[in-house]
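Long-time lurker. I teach an intro course on protein structure, and each term I like to show students one example going from raw sequence to a predicted 3D structure in C-alpha cell notation. This year I'd like something fresh instead of my usual example. Would anyone be willing to generate the C-alpha cells for the chain below so I can use it in lecture? Attribution to the forum is fine with me.
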Amino acid sequence: MGGLLFFAAQVVRAAENSQSLVRQLAELGDRSTGAPGCSEAADKIEKAFRDLGIESVGRQHFLLPVTHYQPAYLGLKGRNTPIWPIRLDALSPQATPADGIEGPLYYVGRGQLKDFNSINVAGSIILMELDSGKNWLNAPMLGAKALIYVDRGPTAKWFFKDKRELTPLEFPRFWLPLSQARALFGSFEEAPKHPMVWLPLGYCSVAVVDGGEFREKTSMPS
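-- Reply from a regular --
Happy to contribute to a lecture. Here you go:
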C-alpha cells in the first residue's frame, strides 16, 4: 500500500510540473528554431526531466539553416514604432531593402477585392485584419509593397497557419497588435477613402460614306 501511495504522489508531482512547464514555455513567446525562446525552452525542458529524477538527459547538436530577422520599425511623423516580421513564406525570407520601404498606408479591412476599389494600391503599404484568410494575396497582385496585419486578439494559431505561402514570393508581411495600431492611427477603420472606380460611359460610332468607303469617327461621351 505504501508503494502505491508513493507512486501516486510521483504522478501528481509530475502532472503539476508539466502544467508549470507549459506555462513557462508559453511565457517565452516565439520558440521557433533560431529565436531566443528556442534555447530557453530547451533549458527548461531539460531541467524538467532532471526534476523528475531522470539522469540520462542529454542534447544532440546539429546545424540547421533558419531565417533570422532583424528588428523592424514603422516610421510615421518622425516616430518609429516596432512591428514584427512573421515567418509565413517557406522559401523567401521576405527581406526589406536596407533603406526600408516607403509608401502610402491604406487600411483594407479583411482584404477582399472590393476593399481595394477606392485606393491606388500600387506602391502602397497595406494594413489588413489578421482574420483575413488568404486575402493577403490580393495586395501583391495589385502592386502593394508590403502588408501589416492588425491583430485584435486573442488569436488562435490557425490564423497564422492559413497564411503560409509555399511559392518564392518576395512580399514582406508584419504583425501589429490592435493597441499599437490605435496609438498610431486612431480610428483607422473610419478613415475616409477617395473613390476611384470604373464607370460605364456611353459612346457611339459615326460611319461616314466617302467614295464608297467607310470611315469611322468615335464621338466624345454625351
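Some talking points for your students: Strands lie at 72-76, 79-85, 105-107, 125-129, 146-151, 173-177, 205-210, 213-218. The longest strand covers residues 79-85.
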